[in-house]
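Objective 1b: paired records.
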Amino acid sequence: MYKNIELNQAALKRGFSERDISWAFTYYLYDGPMEEMENKYLRIGFTPTGVLLEIMYNEIDDFSVNVFHVMRCRSIYYHLLNL
């Protein structure tokens, strides 16, 4: 588990708070590599109020990540959730 979540300014541009992003990143439903993109990962999780977010990040090291993209989860990723 990552102990340090760094938020890029781009991750905040859609109005989600650091708390919402951290919560969804920690309590996620899906996590996996982005196809054809080296060191880029997708994580999908809910905010405390139930908004489903797609979060894209890079690993910095074994304990740290850089979150560079956050938005409401698009339907193109729903198949990853197996709901």
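Objective 1b, second protein:
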Amino acid sequence: MKEQNKGITLIALVITIIILLILAGISIASLTGSGLFEKAGEAKNKSVEAQEGENTTLKEYEDTINGFLGNNLSGGSNLGEEIKNVDTSITDPVSAMPDGTKEVVEGDANKGIVIKDSKDNEWTWVEVPKTIFTATESKQYDTIKADLINYVTTPTNYRTSSFADEWHALDGEILVNERTTNLTEEQKKLNNGCGLTYYEYKENYEKMLSSVFSNGGFWISRYEIGDATATASNKTRTASSGITGEAVSRIDQIPYNYVTCSQAQTLADRMKPDTNKTTSLLFGIQWDLTCKFIDEKAGSAITKGDCKEWGNYTDSSLTLSRGKYNVYPESPTSIWKPFNEDTENYVTSSQTSSNTSYYQLLTTGSSEQTNKMNIYDLAGNEFEWTLERWMFDSINPCAYRGGVYYLNGSDYSASCRGITTTSHSYISISPRATLY
């Protein structure tokens, strides 16, 4: 019995195989007749074709991305490789570059890093060392803000308790701001003060803080915002010029003026080179950081002292190297003259602090003397709107910074502040933008 049950018999195995073959024959015949094999083949072919199409599409995407990166931030033509004398543990301008950056105009951090974006606007890097932060994450906004204020306050104070980066707008004849008691949602939608709604201001400010913290700096327009349309037609801007035209950060442009603070913010916003970046007027803390940056590189507090040696003032004696100048620009009969036409009044020793009746407005970047760390005309030429608010006046909440062409450099340094109304516009106040 034990020997007979050791395994299947040969006869049983043969019978089993025959039965399986019969069943297989019936199944194959049935499947063949149903066309299932043909359909399976078609499905396989379609799957292969679909995979090949997907691979082709992915390859196109990859080539596009690699081509973009190769022209901008990586690969053989990596723009980052053109940046030098930078400690990336302290500051990282390459990571902060906008999409489609065309060119590194100046890559030496000791001279001031300058890039040209996809719109041909030029931006200068303002270094804010990462080592100053006690914050550990980019969303610790209050801590980052406090770190920045402490940085610009010690040892040379660029700040004042009379001004703050705070949203403000006019509700009828009443000035409202973010500290207003029982601020309504309708009031928060107003943008006729600083050019931003309550929520836009908060979003931009937090984005700026995060960017400065993460990248160790921010971009500032190399020049005062120019009116490319006015320059093309050689027109002097007037109160009726409005804010049509192209707002640019380029050399040899007639500065945008006769714009309110809110209009200036609109112009700055138009300069955004891509959807991943924000452009705006400088917040007050950014202007202070720019002054700190220049002073750190210069080895002295030149932005707080007499700026006549590097700014366009009535007591300046600048040598022009390009562009145009306009004597008494507020006059309706004033004209723009090329720098090499009748400039003797501009550069002679007779133009001193005792001869303040002669003054001129310059196109952007007209003199290399006004260039500090590749930022032009931060001192003199035009006052410049910022997103600061004067805390103690409901009539004059809007702040502007720097000096102006018709005053003395000893009285209005690059770090100075001025105030005016939300509706004020004049030839002497221009915008400058920041990119973050």
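Residues 1-6, 62-77, 348-356 have pLDDT under 50 and may be disordered. Residues 36-72 form the longest helix (37 residues).
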